[in-house]
């Protein structure tokens, strides 16, 4: 098997969509990033350019390769136009089943026959998303991790109808990006989201109970278990609104052990969503850098 059509469409110009678009464009794929928000696509293009330019500055990317990667990435507001003739679509829009089904049902008829349709969902059902298109066997989960240009894992998620061929093709794309892929049978939270949600939720319970400071909880996981980032830092990066949505889904499907910590609910209600909002468990400056000593204190919860 080999990839003969290298046109890829990535839907959603948020943090994940930007990272996925960079991964494909920098790996030789003609990549179209789709979002109706022009400000979001402008920000995405700037972010991709910065990753490539930083790679050149650090000696990890050749200057010509960086410029070629930038040239392979374009943006488009109209999904139907972007999907024309594409062999792969990766949707990374909001974690809402109806929205995801609308995206894939709009794109599928415009793509080449038998095109692979992938969803980056971390919690929703690949099987349900696949019902929105003909040939649901070509729908597969491709769950990337943030930041995409640094994280090597991709979870390939097999829905009820997903064919062996679709999984093999998804793995081929992952290989082309230099990623390591694992195959997961569809289950709430897959492998990583399920474990990460429980870890982050438990860390928030400990913070709420005053077991340790936010800084010390994160240090415990980084230094004691060699995690690259503590669970509270990671929650701030991912966004506590996203974390809460995943926890509520897992709670409804897997039971009480995933009941969201009240502190997460309180933070989301108050707008402390994490780094993207300037404040989560920690506070951040205008450059997105964490302000030392700014972790939430048990005494004020």
Keywords for this entry:
signal; 45% helix; globular; eight-stranded mixed sheet; 8 strands; alpha/beta; 301 residues; plasmid
Itemize the secondary structure elements and their pairings.
Layout: E1 7-11, H1 15-25, E2 30-34, H2 38-57, H3 63-72, E3 73-76, H4 79-83, E4 88-91, H5 97-107, E5 116-119, H6 126-130, E6 139-143, E7 153-158, H7 164-176, E8 180-185, H8 192-209, H9 214-225, H10 231-238, H11 240-254, H12 262-269
Parallel strand pairs: 1-2, 1-4, 2-3, 4-5, 5-6, 7-8
Antiparallel strand pairs: 6-7
Helix pairs in contact: 1-2, 2-3, 8-10, 8-11, 11-12
Structural class: alpha/beta
User: Alpha-carbon distance between the termini?
Assistant: 56 Å
Shape: globular
Fraction in beta strands = 5-15%
Helix content: 40-55%
Radius of gyration: 20 Å
Rounded average pLDDT: 94
Widest beta sheet: strand line-up: 3-2-1-4-5-6-7-8
How many strand segments? 8
Q: Which residues form runs of ≥5 with pLDDT under 50?
A: none
Summarize the helix and strand pattern as letters. Answer: EHEHHEHEHEHEEHEHHHHH
Q: Give the biggest beta sheet.
A: 8 strands, mixed
List the total number of helices.
12
């Amino acid at each position: 098997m080999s990839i003969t059509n290298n046109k890829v469409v990535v839907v959603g110009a948020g943090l994940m969509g930007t990272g996925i678009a960079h991964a494909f464009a920098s790996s030789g794929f003609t990549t179209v990033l789709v979002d109706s928000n022009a400000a979001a696509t402008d920000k995405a293009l700037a972010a991709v350019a910065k990753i490539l330019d930083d790679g050149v500055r650090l000696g990890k990317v050749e200057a010509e390769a960086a410029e070629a990667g930038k040239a392979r990435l374009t943006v488009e507001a109209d999904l139907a136009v972007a999907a024309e003739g594409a062999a792969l679509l990766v949707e990374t829009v909001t974690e809402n089943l109806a929205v995801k089904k609308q995206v894939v049902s709009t794109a599928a008829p415009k793509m080449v026959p038998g095109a692979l349709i992938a969803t980056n969902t971390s919690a929703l059902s690949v099987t349900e998303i696949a019902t929105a298109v003909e040939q649901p066997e070509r729908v597969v989960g491709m769950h990337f991790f943030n930041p995409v240009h640094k994280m090597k894992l991709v979870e390939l998620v097999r829905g009820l109808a997903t064919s062996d061929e679709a999984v093999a093709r998804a793995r081929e794309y992952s290989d082309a990006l230099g990623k390591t892929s694992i195959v997961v049978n569809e289950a709430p939270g897959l492998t990583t989201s399920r474990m990460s949600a429980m870890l982050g939720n438990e860390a928030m319970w400990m913070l709420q109970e005053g077991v340790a400071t936010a800084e010390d909880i994160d240090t415990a996981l980084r230094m004691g278990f060699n995690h690259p980032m503590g669970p509270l830092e990671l929650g701030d990066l991912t966004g506590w609104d996203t974390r809460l949505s995943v926890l509520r889904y897992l709670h409804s499907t897997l039971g009480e052990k995933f009941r969201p910590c009240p502190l997460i609910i309180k933070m989301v209600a108050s707008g402390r969503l994490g780094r993207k909002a300037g404040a989560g468990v920690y506070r951040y400056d205008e450059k997105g850098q964490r302000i030392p000593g700014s972790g939430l204190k048990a005494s004020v919860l």
